[in-house]
Amino acid sequence: MPDTVTNVSLRDLEAVVATVFATMMGLEVWPGEEPCPASPGMLTSAVYLTGEWTGAVCIHVEPAQACWFAGCFLGMPTPDAICDDVRDVMGELANMVAGNLKCTLKPGIRVSIPSVTDGPSYSLRVCGAHVTSRTGFRTESGPFWVSLIEAGEED
């Protein structure tokens, strides 16, 4: 994997994700090698960035992992299924990761409100953009992935 993803270094991405997860949920995060499965029911939270750099930050996670994150984030028992609390937490995690990453990009970048997509069959496409990186991470309860998507010429 290259050291630099668009204008974001892999080291910066790993540091931002680790800091957000440690600060907000008390979770240790380390790089993972498992490929993103794109399985039915996968949940994706996204925050879009605009300005001198345009793209998105997405977090992809299996439903059980998303529920576990929600319980940790909110300090409550793990929800049994995807619900509004789980979607809100996943949106907030994407928002925090994107907000911290925007500092490594060009000045003046703005972030959108988060969006969350889930269900047995969905497709998320950022028109006119391509995935520049999909990086795996692990916690004690399992994997999740962060994608950086950049607007511009498609691969």
How are the elements arranged and paired?
Blueprint: E1 4-5, E2 8-9, H1 10-25, E3 30-32, E4 43-50, E5 55-61, H2 63-74, H3 84-101, E6 110-111, E7 115-117, E8 129-139, E9 142-151
Antiparallel strand pairs: 1-2, 3-8, 4-5, 4-6, 4-7, 5-9, 8-9
Helix pairs in contact: 1-3, 2-3
Provide keyphrases for this structure.
155 residues, alpha+beta, Chemotaxis protein chec, 7-stranded antiparallel sheet, 3 helices, disordered N terminus
Could you characterize what this model shows?
By secondary structure, this protein is α+β, with helices and mostly antiparallel strands. It has a single domain (4-151), classed as CheC-like (Chemotaxis protein chec, 3-Layer(aba) Sandwich). 30% of the residues lie in helices and 31% in strands. It contains 3 helices and 9 strands, in the order ββαβββααββββ. Strands 3, 4, 5, 6, 7, 8 and 9 form a 7-stranded antiparallel sheet that branches. A two-stranded antiparallel sheet has the order 1-2. Helix 1 crosses helix 3. The two termini are 17 Å apart. Mean pLDDT is 86; it is low at 1-5.
Largest sheet: 7 strands, antiparallel
CATH architecture: 3-Layer(aba) Sandwich
Mean of residue pLDDT? 86
For this structure, the CATH topology is: Chemotaxis protein chec
Shape designation? globular
Contiguous runs where pLDDT drops below 50 for at least 5 residues: 1-5
Structural class determined from secondary elements: alpha+beta
Helix segment tally = 3
- Counting structural domains, the number is 1
Q: Please give the number of β-strands.
A: 9
What string, H for helix and E for strand, traces the elements in order?
Answer: EEHEEEHHEEEE
